[in-house]
Design goal:
This protein is mainly alpha-helical. It has two domains: about 30 residues; about 150 residues, no CATH class. It is about 50% helix and about 5% strand. It has seven helices and four strands; from the N terminus they run αββααβαααβα. β1 and β2 form a beta hairpin. α2 packs across α4, α2 runs antiparallel to α6 and α4 crosses α7. The protein is globular and about 40 Å long. The chain starts with a helix and ends with a helix. About 20% of the residues are buried. The N terminus is likely disordered.
Length: about 180
């Protein structure tokens, strides 16, 4: 075996070992960067989930009653599109992937791209903050910003930690992290 090949092989083994990879015999397997990224994102995504949990407690006290009409998901009717921070987009992207999708496709009727064919949100448990605070008139109306300003600040702090550049529209934010 040529000396250059052996030396190159040892560099790869050493690099894999230093990076937390697995070294067996003369082969090296580099660590999966997606697993590393998941571990490093876990605390930030847990904070996003904590914000969502606190929001749910506040919604319960306000007696909002979502009837799942999906009117708020019909962007062409409401003229409003939720904005997501990077942390929210990463969490939503997990829901998109769990639904079997690899990309967002525009809804044929101009509604939210996460609205499934049966008229239900594909990522309801991981839906973004804007979807959790925008209620149609029948469900009690939009939550006043003063009641959620501290939660918005927490989401913005996570966005900054993750290197986000501010909120983006739902389709744009999720598409950016799915790629």
């Amino acid at each position: 075996m040529p000396a250059a090949l052996v030396a190159s092989g040892w560099r790869n083994v050493e690099r894999a070992a230093l990076a937390g990879g697995v070294v067996t015999g003369l082969t090296a397997r580099m660590p999966d960067p997606r697993r590393h990224r998941s571990r490093t994102l876990a605390p930030d995504l847990a904070e996003v989930e904590a914000v969502y949990a606190e929001l749910e407690r506040r919604v319960e006290r306000l007696a909002r009653d979502c009837r799942l009409s999906t009117r708020c998901c019909r962007f062409q009717l409401t003229g409003e599109i939720p904005l997501l921070t990077r942390g929210e987009a990463l969490l939503a992207a997990r829901g998109v992937r769990a639904s079997g999708r690899k990309a967002l496709k525009p809804h044929p009727q101009g509604a939210c791209p996460l609205l499934g064919p049966e008229g239900r949100c594909l990522i309801y448990q991981r839906r973004p903050f804007g979807c959790r605070t925008h209620f149609c008139r029948a469900a009690g109306g939009v939550m006043p910003r003063a009641l959620v300003a501290d939660l918005i600040q927490r989401l913005e702090a996570v966005d900054e930690k993750l290197g986000g550049d501010g909120s983006r529209t739902l389709p744009e934010a999720i598409a950016a992290v799915l790629d």
